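Subject: Sanity check before I submit

Could someone independently write out the structure tokens for this chain? I want to compare against mine line by line before I put it in a report. The sequence has 323 residues.
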Amino acid sequence: MKEAEREARRAAQPGECHRHMLLEVSHHLEHTTLGVCIEAACVANNVPMKYVSASLSNTIVFKRSLVTPQCDTPSYVQEDNMAVVLQMSDMVDMSLSMLGIGSSHLSLTEYIKKIYKSHQAKVTLIVFGCEKYFRTIKTQKNRVHRDTVCGTQRNSKKNKDMTMITRAQYEEATTALQMATDTVVINMDLEEDVAKTILRLNKAIAEAPVKRGRYETEAMSVKTTGLKIGKDNSGCRQVWSRMLQESRNISADVAMAIVSKWPAPYMLFQEYERLSSSQGELLLQDIEVRRGGGVVQTSRRVGKETSRRIYELFTKNSEFTIK
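---
Independent answer below. Compare away.
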């Protein structure tokens, strides 16, 4: 039982959780060069994978193992993300149909909606051979131009039947697709790059719950932290102090030094409103922080950098501007 509990905790840790995922790869890729590269990459990184029968070709479904103390054999649950590898020739036909130019019966948007209806998952579309296609088109146009200038004519039928799409049309179709269906489109030309991308997706999907949990502050879950705010507002200072400690490099001593001068967040916010930006950034830097007591008591200042970050926390409109 204890071993199973340790295994479950270990399976949820970053750097380890991606090895507890299972990649279900469409059987259409089993005997292809791309399938061999994906399998080799999974073996090298200790990521389990297996080929499964699938109605849609070239799909990779990500599943997470659920290790519980009550059951030694892990069960798997499908994640709400998947990958699809699409050849550039198919991508061109469906893109032109989406733009109302081609004759394909299925447009790109309809194709993605069909996948979503079948798997109920967000799709990452890996287009294989994109740059190679456009290089081939460019070479073909240059050859035709050269033959026209020189007055020669080639009998070669190579690339003669290739469906043509311009780069602008392709980008228009993929942009419209991403806006309409929230699909991520990635262009690849090497099998090894596709395999590496699938492994990166697997790691990102595996670590997503852990990383999302880092942003859940303890102040937002008062019951689990043991902090309670009474009808007489008792406990507010403790919650306010805990909120400050959620910021980087702010210890309990620094938080309590700030709380002792501004017992509530709105008091500090009102103080910031009265000051200019340069004054607000330096407001807290000289607050004395005491540690210990008696002859072993030490003291220091909050500091300029911590003061600036707390000021930005209260005044910036976007979390991404706080550094």
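---
OP: Matches mine. For the report I'm noting this point. The radius of gyration is 29 Å.
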